[in-house]
Amino acid sequence: MSNTHIDLNKRHSEKPEFSPERMAQVKELMNRLPEGKHKSALIRILHMAEEDFGGWLSIETMDYVAEILNIQPIEVYEVATFYTMFNLDPVGKYVFEVCRTGPCMLVGSDQIIEYIENKLDIKVGQTTSDGMFTLKTAECLGACGYAPMLQCGKKYHEHLTKERVDEIINTYRSGQVPN
Ligand code: FES
After folding, report:
1. Which pLDDT band, with edges at 50, 70 and 90, does 5 fall under?
2. Cβ–ligand 1 contact at 95 (below 6 Å)
3. E strands of 6-126, at which residues?
4. Spelled out in words, what is the top-level CATH class assigned to the domain 94-173?
5. Region 36-41: what's the mean pLDDT?
6. What local confidence, expressed as pLDDT, does residue 39 receive?
7. Which residues pair with 99 in a beta bridge?
8. How far is residue 116's CA from residue 123's CA, in Å, rounded to a whole number?
């Protein structure tokens, strides 16, 4: 499934620039690839950019990555808009991606989504006013045997129930990562 469109009005307040340490990692990655094939590092570099620049990719960030890789900006936009894992809008500190593919849906992912929407007072695609949580849906995340489930960053939360969702939200709110 492709990602949403790029909103030219949403920008970072400062021009994105990798730290010297991060740039060294980027260069190291590029150096592993043959001359002329640096574009193959694009997805990994976009992940680094998301991590470093607030969890989302603004147009300036994508232009910056294009400059580093010496490719056309459109080549970066094509990739960033194709994969739903990239955020093209500002997101909260924690992004919940609730799987809604068949196996998760059969065991209640719709009810879980509705419960999170009501609890956080947001709809899918929105961020809470305190900037803590963004709610998204995702296609199968490969944990069908543990459905229903959601991903938050690198962490999978499985066998979701309303009680479990309460626990997860409260734990993130307290600044910790739930088990
Ligand atoms: S269907 Fe939800 S993880 Fe596979």
Report:
1. low
2. no
3. 94-99
4. alpha beta
5. 94
6. 95
7. 138
8. 9
The answer to whether the CB of 99 is under 6 A from ligand 1 is yes
Banded model confidence at residue 11, pLDDT cuts 50, 70, 90: confident
Place of tokens 């094509």: 78
Residues β-bridged to residue 151: 97, 156
CA 87 to centroid of ligand 1, rounded, Å: 21
Domain boundaries, the chain: 20-82, 94-173
Q: Is 147 exposed, middle or buried (0-12, 13-18, 19+ CB in 10 A)?
A: buried
The token pair at 38 is 């640096």
Calpha distance 173→65 (Å, rounded):
33
Beta strands in 17-122 (DSSP E): 94-99
Centre of ligand 1 to C-alpha 102, Å, is 7
Q: Is the pLDDT of residue 1 over 80?
A: no
Report whether pLDDT(68) > 80. Answer: yes
In the block, residue with structure tokens 């307290």:
174
Q: Which two tokens stand for residue 39?
A: 């574009």
Residue whose tokens read 């739903």: 84
DSSP letter string, 39-56:
GGGHHHHHHHHHHHTTTS
For residues 133 and 172, the answer to whether their CB atoms sit within 8 Å is yes
